[in-house]
Amino acid sequence: MAAPMTRAAIKEWLKAVSLFSELSTDELEMLASSARSVTVKKHARMFEEGNPGDCCYVLTSGRARVVLSGAGDGEITLATIKPKDLVGELALLNRSTRSAALIAAEDSHFIRIPAESFDKLRKNSRFEDKVIAHITATLREANDQVRGIAPVSTMARVAWCLCRIARQEGTPDGTTSVIPRKTHQELAEMIGCARETVSRKLDTFKTKKCISWDRRTMRVDIEKLQRYLRSEQGPPGSWG
């Protein structure tokens, strides 16, 4: 297991998080002094649905998933957490219980911030304004996620998922967006369907030259993907 982070290292990571980037020296010192580093193994569950909202986390290495219980023993991936992302903060606003679970997708390291320290920061009106803007953006993403798992065709759901990843993680390259390649199982968990179904739809999109991939990346031609969907299913609404 990795050694615990020093307070100085924690401060540097917290400054890199958008929500904390404009904190004063004293506020940042208060936050870093109360935070602690946490190293977890792949598949570790950081919190569960219904747990008390007593802290939030900043991911510094690795990758994690925010998941919601699905049918049977299944789970739907609501979000993929990357380094510098903040997670678990929504439950701190009114000390509600967790609405989803957080699972390490690989060996990971987090900074744990206790609720009491987050509450102290909210006494600063500028920080509170940033919290409101942050929550608004998070709710928009949640609404987008609902569209992705709504009762529309599986082909549309896979297309929506690719467009969402391209918007969040993609790098433009000509007419395409280059994204980190996701496994078929990861995509299936994001939209709540079977891996085999996702594989078939991806093969269709590849045949129509809407997407291509290699071992590490995937190229998504969003305009071509949208045109194909319109030709097959009519106007799709918003695909991202």
Describe this structure in words.
This protein has 240 residues and is of the alpha+beta class. It has two domains: 128 residues, Sandwich (Jelly Rolls); 80 residues, Orthogonal Bundle (Arc Repressor Mutant, subunit A). The chain contains eight helices and twelve strands. The strands form three sheets. The protein has a four-stranded antiparallel sheet with strand order 1-8-3-6. The protein has a four-stranded antiparallel sheet with strand order 2-7-4-5. The chain has a four-stranded antiparallel sheet with strand order 9-10-12-11. Strand 9 and strand 10 form a beta hairpin. Helix 4 packs antiparallel against helix 5, helix 5 crosses helix 6 and helix 6 packs across helix 7. The longest helix is centred in the middle third of the chain and has 25 residues. The C terminus is likely disordered.
Short description:
By secondary structure, the chain is of the alpha+beta class. The protein has eight helices and twelve strands.
